[in-house]
């Protein structure tokens, strides 16, 4: 299978041609040895969209060989930073040109509102590529004086080499750009494995890669099951680095595979159970908006979802009433409606997983403030579900749900809020709302998380690093820190005068 198919966007009638082959060496090709395919589904209708080729481990070998050849002959060794920057900016221009069609395809496969896909996911992705295009010709090492007369050392920040990149289904285009942009800027070549749930936009973006004029082999796109293509990349002897976003369980497997194979560099962006604290001095209306956004954006399918909310006892009743209003005001529906703010969750598997948590919350005795009832009809919809009066031991408080399900608890003192917030194996995001600046400073220092939001939530910038502490990950994405993950520092020691006496 390598022939493109035409898919029709139900709401607009637009026909989009989608490549269905594996993208290797700038061509869409069938698998070398497998007839396996991946079926994609529209989560709003539960109807099949199309099937694409599934890469086997032999295909991963072929993609890695293409990436290695491009690294050694073009991108990694013979293409200047200026040229890398130019091509990256061209890609960003093409994404801007095709933003509406890309957004429609993203919505079809993922379910998120088309307005959100276009204005946030894709807008942010274009900016990410331009941000790192700006770095491509500015990667420099240091000159270090070793002694004043005869020796100097300098460092070179060299591209790591061939990178395996494994991304999830919650932000297919956005996670693609977070991974691809710094790797390209640094001079690395890529084998990209999109999620088997949402491979369509990664394939469509591969077409734009060719149109932008990138040399063959720089980016290779291999939709595949995680246990096949993902595992093959993580354990491949000729892959120099693997970058992953997804569950902590799979992150652990990837790290084990890297350790057992060639000790490739690993960066992991994993799960979370992020705390969000509302102190009594906060602007409650604003804090309720941010708390609702924190759990409902992307239908809660967000690694930094503020899924544990801690509210000071003095404002608890007022605040929870406000929060319920916010949840009820949000329009959930088919993502093709321009006024929709939340779509279905991505798949049947995710729908069942989220509902099993809702049932467990009910069984463990948490009170339901909003939602908690299944809808009739087609589509993997989960209405905003808010549990109050939760206990720290409950499953809905301890485990990542990855759906629009919030666990709310009360606290009395600042110390108590910090202790509750940090009572988790995760450490990705955290938020707090307070009008006391000293309190904001104290609490943001005490929270064990890679990102802390003060008087806002879930806002990210391409020039600010992002990543986790504890079991939420290793390494950073975005900003100059994200670029460092794709370079390897070489120290060159240079002698221009010292004679070595012999015997020494
Ligand atoms: N941190 C985040 O952004 C994400 C977290 N998750 C969490 O994981 C839960 C389960 O979702 P899944 O889709 O099953 O997550 P997952 O972590 O298994 O999938 C993410 C990616 O990893 C790949 N993968 C799976 N097994 C692999 C293996 N053995 N070796 C290499 N790659 C492999 C998948 O094909 C996909 O591309 C969600 O409910 C959520 O809690 C899921 C997606 C994103
Ligand atoms: N919100 C940052 C990326 C993620 O959810 O995976």
From TrEMBL:
Keyword terms: Oxidoreductase
Highest taxon in the source lineage: Eukaryota
Domain Aldehyde dehydrogenase: 34-492
Entry's family note: Belongs to the aldehyde dehydrogenase family.
Matching Gene3D superfamilies: Aldehyde Dehydrogenase, Chain A, domain 1, Aldehyde Dehydrogenase, Chain A, domain 2
Matching CDD domains: ALDH_F1-2_Ald2-like
Single annotated GO MF: aldehyde dehydrogenase [NAD(P)+] activity
Protein name: NAD-aldehyde dehydrogenase
Pfam family, one: Aldedh
Family matches, as InterPro entries: Ald_DH/histidinol_DH, Ald_DH_C, Ald_DH_CS_CYS, Ald_DH_CS_GLU, Ald_DH_N, Aldehyde_DH_dom
Active site: 269
Originating species: Gloeophyllum trabeum (strain ATCC 11539 / FP-39264 / Madison 617) (Brown rot fungus)
């Amino acid at each position: 299978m390598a022939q493109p198919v035409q898919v029709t966007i139900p709401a607009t009638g637009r026909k989009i041609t989608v490549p269905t082959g594996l993208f290797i060496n700038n061509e869409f090709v069938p698998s070398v040895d497998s007839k396996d395919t991946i079926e994609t589904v529209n989560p709003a209708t539960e109807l099949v969209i199309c099937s694409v080729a599934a890469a086997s481990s032999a295909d991963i070998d072929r993609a890695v060989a293409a990436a290695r050849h491009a690294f050694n002959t073009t991108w990694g060794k013979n293409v200047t930073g200026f040229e890398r920057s130019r091509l990256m900016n061209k890609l960003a221009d093409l994404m801007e040109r095709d933003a509406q069609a890309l957004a429609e395809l993203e919505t079809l496969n993922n379910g998120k509102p088309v307005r959100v896909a276009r204005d946030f996911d894709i807008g942010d992705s274009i900016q990410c590529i331009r941000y790192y295009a700006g770095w491509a010709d500015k990667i420099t090492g240091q000159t270090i004086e070793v002694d004043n007369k005869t020796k100097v050392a300098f460092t070179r920040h060299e591209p790591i080499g061939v990178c395996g990149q494994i991304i999830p289904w919650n932000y297919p285009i956005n996670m693609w750009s977070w991974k691809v942009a710094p790797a390209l800027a640094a001079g690395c070549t890529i084998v990209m494995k999109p999620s088997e749930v949402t491979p369509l936009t990664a394939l469509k973006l591969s077409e734009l890669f060719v149109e932008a004029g990138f040399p063959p082999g720089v980016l290779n796109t291999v939709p595949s099951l995680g246990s096949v293509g993902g595992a093959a990349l993580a354990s491949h002897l000729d892959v120099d680095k693997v970058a992953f976003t997804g569950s902590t369980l799979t992150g652990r497997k990837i790290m084990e595979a890297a350790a057992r194979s060639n000790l490739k560099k690993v960066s992991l962006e994993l799960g979370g159970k992020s705390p969000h604290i509302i102190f009594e001095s906060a602007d409650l209306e604003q804090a309720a908006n941010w708390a609702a956004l924190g759990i409902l954006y992307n239908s809660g399918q967000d690694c930094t979802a503020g899924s544990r909310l801690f509210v000071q006892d003095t404002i608890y009743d007022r605040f929870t009433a406000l929060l319920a209003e916010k949840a009820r005001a949000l329009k959930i529906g088919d993502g093709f409606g321009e006024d929709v703010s939340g779509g279905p969750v991505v798949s049947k598997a995710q729908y069942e997983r989220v509902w099993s948590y809702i049932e467990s919350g009910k069984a463990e005795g948490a009170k339901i403030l909003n939602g908690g009832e299944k809808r009739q009809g087609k589509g993997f919809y989960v209405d905003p579900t808010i549990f109050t009066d939760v206990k720290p031991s409950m499953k809905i408080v301890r485990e990542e749900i990855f759906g629009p399900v919030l666990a709310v608890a009360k606290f009395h003192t600042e110390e108590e809020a910090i202790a509750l917030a940090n009572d988790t194996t995760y450490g990705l995001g955290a938020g707090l709302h307070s009008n006391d600046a000293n309190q904001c400073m104290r609490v943001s220092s005490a929270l064990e998380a890679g990102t802390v939001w003060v008087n806002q939530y879930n806002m990210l910038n391409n020039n600010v690093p992002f990543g986790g502490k504890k079991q939420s990950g290793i390494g950073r994405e975005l900003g100059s820190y994200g670029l460092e993950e794709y370079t390897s520092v070489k120290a060159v020691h240079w002698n221009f005068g010292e004679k070595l006496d012999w015997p020494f």
